[in-house]
Amino acid sequence: MKRPRAWHAVAGLAACGATVTGARTVAGYPRSSTPTVSAAAVGLGAAGLMVHQWLSPRSRLYGPVFWHAKTPRRVMALTFDDGPCHPFTEQLLGVLDRERVRATFFMPGANVRREPQLAAEVASEHVVGNHTFSHPHLTWSRTGKVRQEIERGQEEIQDATGREPELFRVPHGWYGPQVISTAESLGLRCVGWSVMAWDWNRPPAQTISQRILRGSTPGGISLLHDGQNTDAFPEADRSRTIAAVPRIIDSLREEDYCFVTVPELRSLDAGP
After folding, report:
1. Where are the domains of the chain?
2. Labelling 219: which of 64, 92, 251, 258 has CA 20 to 30 A away?
3. How far apart are CA 114 and CA 110, in angstroms?
4. Catalytic residue among 68, 131, 135, 225, which?
5. What is the CATH number of domain 75-268?
Protein backbone atom coordinates (compact mmCIF):
# COMPACT_ATOMS: atom_id res chain seq x y z
CA MET A 1 0.00 0.00 0.00
CA LYS A 2 1.30 3.42 -0.97
CA ARG A 3 2.23 5.71 1.92
CA PRO A 4 0.40 9.05 1.97
CA ARG A 5 2.66 11.98 1.25
CA ALA A 6 3.19 15.05 3.39
CA TRP A 7 1.03 17.22 1.16
CA HIS A 8 -2.06 15.27 2.18
CA ALA A 9 -1.49 16.35 5.79
CA VAL A 10 -0.84 19.96 4.72
CA ALA A 11 -4.00 19.94 2.61
CA GLY A 12 -5.87 18.66 5.65
CA LEU A 13 -4.54 21.54 7.73
CA ALA A 14 -5.62 24.05 5.07
CA ALA A 15 -9.12 22.56 4.89
CA CYS A 16 -9.40 22.31 8.67
CA GLY A 17 -8.31 25.91 9.15
CA ALA A 18 -10.82 27.14 6.60
CA THR A 19 -13.61 25.00 8.07
CA VAL A 20 -13.04 26.13 11.67
CA THR A 21 -12.73 29.76 10.62
CA GLY A 22 -15.96 29.58 8.61
CA ALA A 23 -17.86 27.71 11.32
CA ARG A 24 -16.87 30.17 14.04
CA THR A 25 -17.76 33.13 11.82
CA VAL A 26 -21.20 31.66 10.98
CA ALA A 27 -21.76 30.93 14.68
CA GLY A 28 -21.29 34.61 15.43
CA TYR A 29 -17.91 34.54 17.15
CA PRO A 30 -15.85 37.70 16.59
CA ARG A 31 -13.52 37.43 13.61
CA SER A 32 -10.77 38.98 15.69
CA SER A 33 -11.03 36.37 18.45
CA THR A 34 -7.88 34.38 19.11
CA PRO A 35 -9.29 30.95 18.10
CA THR A 36 -10.72 32.32 14.83
CA VAL A 37 -7.53 34.19 13.93
CA SER A 38 -5.41 31.15 14.82
CA ALA A 39 -7.53 28.83 12.66
CA ALA A 40 -7.36 31.27 9.76
CA ALA A 41 -3.59 31.60 10.15
CA VAL A 42 -3.12 27.82 10.10
CA GLY A 43 -5.33 27.45 7.03
CA LEU A 44 -3.69 30.29 5.12
CA GLY A 45 -0.19 29.15 6.07
CA ALA A 46 -0.85 25.60 4.90
CA ALA A 47 -2.46 26.81 1.67
CA GLY A 48 0.44 29.18 1.05
CA LEU A 49 2.94 26.36 1.52
CA MET A 50 1.05 24.19 -0.97
CA VAL A 51 1.04 26.93 -3.62
CA HIS A 52 4.71 27.76 -3.04
CA GLN A 53 5.78 24.14 -3.38
CA TRP A 54 3.56 23.68 -6.44
CA LEU A 55 5.49 26.44 -8.22
CA SER A 56 8.96 25.57 -6.92
CA PRO A 57 11.76 23.79 -8.83
CA ARG A 58 12.90 22.56 -5.40
CA SER A 59 9.55 21.08 -4.38
CA ARG A 60 9.66 18.34 -1.75
CA LEU A 61 6.13 18.54 -0.41
CA TYR A 62 4.62 16.61 -3.32
CA GLY A 63 7.48 14.18 -3.77
CA PRO A 64 11.23 14.14 -4.34
CA VAL A 65 12.80 16.65 -6.73
CA PHE A 66 16.57 16.42 -6.97
CA TRP A 67 17.96 19.96 -7.10
CA HIS A 68 21.29 19.65 -5.29
CA ALA A 69 23.49 17.04 -3.65
CA LYS A 70 24.53 17.11 -0.01
CA THR A 71 28.25 16.70 -0.47
CA PRO A 72 31.37 18.51 0.73
CA ARG A 73 33.00 18.00 -2.67
CA ARG A 74 33.29 21.02 -4.93
CA VAL A 75 31.27 19.64 -7.81
CA MET A 76 28.61 21.18 -10.05
CA ALA A 77 26.27 19.74 -12.66
CA LEU A 78 25.75 21.95 -15.71
CA THR A 79 22.31 21.47 -17.25
CA PHE A 80 20.82 22.92 -20.43
CA ASP A 81 17.14 23.08 -21.38
CA ASP A 82 15.12 23.41 -24.59
CA GLY A 83 17.55 21.99 -27.16
CA PRO A 84 18.55 20.70 -29.52
CA CYS A 85 18.58 23.98 -31.40
CA HIS A 86 20.81 24.66 -34.41
CA PRO A 87 23.33 26.31 -34.41
CA PHE A 88 23.63 26.90 -30.67
CA THR A 89 23.62 23.31 -29.49
CA GLU A 90 26.49 22.50 -31.89
CA GLN A 91 28.41 25.51 -30.58
CA LEU A 92 27.79 24.43 -27.00
CA LEU A 93 28.96 20.90 -27.76
CA GLY A 94 32.17 22.39 -29.13
CA VAL A 95 32.75 24.35 -25.93
CA LEU A 96 32.07 21.35 -23.70
CA ASP A 97 34.31 19.13 -25.82
CA ARG A 98 37.21 21.61 -25.64
CA GLU A 99 36.76 21.97 -21.88
CA ARG A 100 36.28 18.18 -21.42
CA VAL A 101 33.05 18.71 -19.51
CA ARG A 102 30.04 16.41 -19.63
CA ALA A 103 26.65 18.02 -19.05
CA THR A 104 22.97 17.09 -18.81
CA PHE A 105 20.50 18.22 -21.48
CA PHE A 106 16.72 18.32 -20.99
CA MET A 107 15.08 18.18 -24.41
CA PRO A 108 11.47 18.71 -25.54
CA GLY A 109 10.41 15.93 -27.86
CA ALA A 110 9.26 18.39 -30.53
CA ASN A 111 12.81 19.74 -30.81
CA VAL A 112 14.22 16.23 -30.97
CA ARG A 113 11.79 15.40 -33.79
CA ARG A 114 12.94 18.51 -35.67
CA GLU A 115 16.66 17.77 -35.21
CA PRO A 116 17.09 14.05 -34.47
CA GLN A 117 20.71 13.84 -35.63
CA LEU A 118 21.73 16.69 -33.36
CA ALA A 119 19.91 15.06 -30.45
CA ALA A 120 21.79 11.83 -31.13
CA GLU A 121 25.08 13.73 -31.19
CA VAL A 122 24.31 15.23 -27.77
CA ALA A 123 23.38 11.83 -26.35
CA SER A 124 26.60 10.27 -27.61
CA GLU A 125 28.65 12.33 -25.13
CA HIS A 126 26.24 13.70 -22.56
CA VAL A 127 23.19 12.74 -20.50
CA VAL A 128 19.79 13.49 -22.02
CA GLY A 129 16.64 13.99 -19.96
CA ASN A 130 12.95 14.36 -20.81
CA HIS A 131 11.50 17.90 -20.97
CA THR A 132 8.01 16.89 -22.21
CA PHE A 133 7.03 16.96 -25.87
CA SER A 134 5.73 20.49 -26.49
CA HIS A 135 7.09 22.43 -23.47
CA PRO A 136 3.68 23.35 -21.98
CA HIS A 137 2.75 24.76 -18.59
CA LEU A 138 1.68 21.63 -16.72
CA THR A 139 0.98 23.38 -13.43
CA TRP A 140 -2.76 22.87 -13.45
CA SER A 141 -2.95 20.10 -16.06
CA ARG A 142 -4.77 16.84 -15.44
CA THR A 143 -2.80 13.64 -14.99
CA GLY A 144 -3.75 12.40 -18.47
CA LYS A 145 -2.27 15.49 -20.14
CA VAL A 146 0.91 15.22 -18.04
CA ARG A 147 1.34 11.55 -18.93
CA GLN A 148 0.79 12.21 -22.63
CA GLU A 149 3.40 14.98 -22.71
CA ILE A 150 6.01 12.91 -20.85
CA GLU A 151 5.38 9.75 -22.87
CA ARG A 152 5.58 11.57 -26.21
CA GLY A 153 8.81 13.25 -25.16
CA GLN A 154 10.20 9.92 -24.03
CA GLU A 155 9.34 8.27 -27.35
CA GLU A 156 10.93 11.00 -29.48
CA ILE A 157 14.16 10.98 -27.49
CA GLN A 158 14.41 7.20 -27.54
CA ASP A 159 13.69 7.03 -31.28
CA ALA A 160 16.37 9.62 -32.08
CA THR A 161 19.09 8.60 -29.63
CA GLY A 162 18.43 4.94 -28.88
CA ARG A 163 18.46 5.79 -25.19
CA GLU A 164 15.58 5.93 -22.75
CA PRO A 165 15.81 8.96 -20.44
CA GLU A 166 15.79 8.36 -16.69
CA LEU A 167 15.50 12.04 -15.74
CA PHE A 168 12.64 14.50 -16.14
CA ARG A 169 12.47 18.26 -15.73
CA VAL A 170 9.10 19.96 -15.97
CA PRO A 171 8.97 23.08 -18.18
CA HIS A 172 9.21 26.29 -16.16
CA GLY A 173 10.14 24.29 -13.05
CA TRP A 174 6.58 24.15 -11.70
CA TYR A 175 6.07 20.77 -10.05
CA GLY A 176 2.63 19.85 -8.82
CA PRO A 177 1.66 16.52 -7.23
CA GLN A 178 0.22 15.18 -10.47
CA VAL A 179 3.47 15.95 -12.32
CA ILE A 180 5.78 14.26 -9.83
CA SER A 181 3.57 11.20 -9.33
CA THR A 182 3.14 10.72 -13.10
CA ALA A 183 6.87 11.04 -13.78
CA GLU A 184 7.62 8.57 -11.01
CA SER A 185 5.06 6.09 -12.37
CA LEU A 186 6.95 6.19 -15.68
CA GLY A 187 10.25 5.47 -13.93
CA LEU A 188 11.63 9.01 -14.17
CA ARG A 189 13.41 11.03 -11.47
CA CYS A 190 12.37 14.69 -11.29
CA VAL A 191 15.19 17.24 -11.43
CA GLY A 192 15.20 20.92 -10.46
CA TRP A 193 18.11 23.35 -10.05
CA SER A 194 19.92 25.34 -7.40
CA VAL A 195 21.01 28.32 -9.52
CA MET A 196 19.83 29.85 -12.78
CA ALA A 197 20.72 32.90 -14.85
CA TRP A 198 17.32 33.90 -16.30
CA ASP A 199 19.08 33.59 -19.65
CA TRP A 200 15.77 33.15 -21.49
CA ASN A 201 15.57 36.96 -21.33
CA ARG A 202 18.87 37.17 -23.24
CA PRO A 203 20.91 39.32 -20.85
CA PRO A 204 24.57 40.02 -21.70
CA ALA A 205 26.96 37.07 -21.45
CA GLN A 206 28.74 38.69 -18.51
CA THR A 207 25.46 38.95 -16.59
CA ILE A 208 24.67 35.30 -17.29
CA SER A 209 28.05 34.13 -16.01
CA GLN A 210 27.93 36.39 -12.96
CA ARG A 211 24.51 35.06 -11.93
CA ILE A 212 25.66 31.45 -12.18
CA LEU A 213 28.94 32.08 -10.38
CA ARG A 214 27.22 34.00 -7.58
CA GLY A 215 24.84 31.15 -6.88
CA SER A 216 27.22 28.22 -7.31
CA THR A 217 27.72 25.99 -4.27
CA PRO A 218 29.14 22.47 -3.79
CA GLY A 219 26.68 19.91 -5.10
CA GLY A 220 24.71 22.46 -7.07
CA ILE A 221 22.84 22.20 -10.36
CA SER A 222 22.93 25.15 -12.75
CA LEU A 223 20.22 25.89 -15.30
CA LEU A 224 20.99 27.44 -18.68
CA HIS A 225 19.34 27.14 -22.11
CA ASP A 226 20.62 26.05 -25.52
CA GLY A 227 17.17 26.59 -27.04
CA GLN A 228 13.95 28.47 -26.42
CA ASN A 229 10.85 26.39 -25.74
CA THR A 230 10.17 24.67 -29.08
CA ASP A 231 11.26 27.60 -31.26
CA ALA A 232 13.92 27.29 -33.94
CA PHE A 233 16.56 29.78 -35.01
CA PRO A 234 16.31 32.79 -35.40
CA GLU A 235 13.51 33.07 -32.80
CA ALA A 236 15.66 31.05 -30.43
CA ASP A 237 18.87 33.03 -29.99
CA ARG A 238 21.19 31.58 -27.36
CA SER A 239 24.43 33.18 -28.54
CA ARG A 240 24.88 35.05 -25.26
CA THR A 241 24.44 31.91 -23.19
CA ILE A 242 27.00 30.03 -25.31
CA ALA A 243 29.44 32.93 -24.90
CA ALA A 244 29.01 32.78 -21.10
CA VAL A 245 29.71 29.05 -20.68
CA PRO A 246 33.54 29.12 -21.08
CA ARG A 247 33.84 31.84 -18.44
CA ILE A 248 31.59 29.90 -16.05
CA ILE A 249 33.70 26.77 -16.46
CA ASP A 250 37.04 28.59 -16.16
CA SER A 251 35.97 30.60 -13.12
CA LEU A 252 34.60 27.60 -11.24
CA ARG A 253 37.73 25.60 -12.02
CA GLU A 254 39.78 28.41 -10.50
CA GLU A 255 37.77 27.74 -7.32
CA ASP A 256 38.66 24.02 -7.55
CA TYR A 257 35.28 22.89 -8.86
CA CYS A 258 34.89 19.94 -11.17
CA PHE A 259 31.89 19.09 -13.32
CA VAL A 260 29.65 16.03 -13.30
CA THR A 261 26.40 14.94 -14.88
CA VAL A 262 23.18 14.84 -12.86
CA PRO A 263 23.33 11.02 -12.45
CA GLU A 264 26.92 11.33 -11.22
CA LEU A 265 25.86 14.07 -8.83
CA ARG A 266 23.05 11.90 -7.47
CA SER A 267 25.58 9.19 -6.65
CA LEU A 268 27.46 11.69 -4.48
CA ASP A 269 24.36 12.79 -2.59
CA ALA A 270 24.55 12.02 1.14
CA GLY A 271 21.02 13.24 1.76
CA PRO A 272 17.98 11.08 2.58
Report:
1. 6-54, 75-268
2. 92
3. 6
4. 225
5. 3.20.20.370
